[in-house]
Design goal:
single chain, 89 residues, mainly alpha, 4 helices, 71% helix
Length: 89
Amino acid sequence: MLIPFLIGTAISLLALYYLRQTDPKRARAFALQTPSSARRGKIAFWVSILPGLILLFGGYVGSFFCWFGALSVAGWIIALRRPRQEPVR
């Protein structure tokens, strides 16, 4: 039960990190250059949610609740971190 939880959490956190790095609104708020690559927000959103659905419907209900809690807390931590790049002047 631990392995599916860890794999699902890692996949979801990577997708959330990608969303954070390519968010144009966040870039404007911190006066950063907007990402030049094409943003695939819908795909990244579904990639972040899919492990939870697999856990839930795969019978790993306990792992699903752990995944949900870990994703909530880690998602806030990812969102609250300030970017390291220098602002555009």
